[in-house]
Amino acid sequence: MTHTSNTPHMNVTPAELGFAMPAEFSPHSACWMLWPQRPDTWRYGAKPAQQAFVEVATAIAESETVYVGVNDEQYENARNQLPAHVRVVELSSNDAWMRDVGPTFVTHPDGRLAMVDWEFNAWGGLKGGLYFPWDKDRRIRTKIAEILGIPRFEAPVVLEGGAIHVDGDGTLITTEECLLNPNRNPDLSRQRMENVLHDYLGVEKVIWLPRGCHLDETDGHIDNLCCFVAPGEVALNWCDDEHDPQHAISREALEVLENATDARGRALKVHKLPQPGPLHIAEEEASGIDRLSSSHPRQPGDRMAASYANFYIGNSVVVMPLLDPTHDDQAKATLQDLFPDRRVIGVPAREILLGGGNIHCITQQQPLCVASPGMSRPE
């Protein structure tokens, strides 16, 4: 029988059982999101951010089922704002970054679905973390496993979903700045981290980029810098201005990528996405945010880590952030060329960026599970 207990597997890893993480461009059965309401992250009681989240959820819902988890006190408001076909579920959280606090789903060739439950410490714990406490966020994966009735594998490391990208063909890309950061796993070597990624995601090769985007408060999440768009192909946040700190970061990433091969021995093809901006927090944008000692400060003039690489790949759509009229059309055209069979939808996303992330950060895909030919699914 298929095991659906929410009791975590302690002595066996997903890879040992044949599970692996599929690529984001593989078919989904759903997308999971959370509802913004935290006043020290989102300005003016999160009302502008809520509108942006509604637009993202509506766009993705053209492509697949969307679940939005909501704290009880915001349930009625969210239900009234979101389209009827978006499913609203009570799912308490400390903030709205489902990519990082939600499950990393893995699939089995026989059609089974499971999840990896990473440790979470709010992007650094008490050494640079973005808020405290994070107790509700820590329970989200357990609750989703219960809702779906799927196995949950507890991983022995701190890791956020935005820190990894896979091609579904054995390759994972990440940054040293994040996964090897002392505020995540101070005693973990690079080789041990690779072993964990192999054991829990079924990957065979890890490509390490040195750093993430300039001033990214997540300590260098890969999903803001670079992502797989197809096997052997990546999109990279690119900056031409040699005086911009992002230029050196993008250049060193390009050098690593151009000299790397994936798990199947393919050289990587790199597609450059123009960097928006640079974009900074305006006075009126900062003034609407609650200032608490337990949360990350957001001051007027602060530069934001804006990137068009922070998009979501749905079944039939690609939902990208609109951030800068100077570069929006170019970025959209590039993504449309990369995804000719999907419709690229641009969503005004500055309100999400003001909170510290973007569209990929607030979404988490649930893969569609289909048994491989010749395999029968257990009853």
Automatic annotation (TrEMBL):
Its EC number is 3.5.3.12. One of its GO terms (biological process) is putrescine biosynthetic process. The keyword Hydrolase applies. It comes from the Bacteria. It catalyses: agmatine + H2O = N-carbamoylputrescine + NH4(+). It is an enzyme of class 3 (hydrolase). The keyword Hydrolase applies. Keywords: Hydrolase. The active site is at C361. GO terms for molecular function: agmatine deiminase activity; protein-arginine deiminase activity. Belongs to the agmatine deiminase family. PANTHER family: AGMATINE DEIMINASE-RELATED. This is Putative agmatine deiminase.
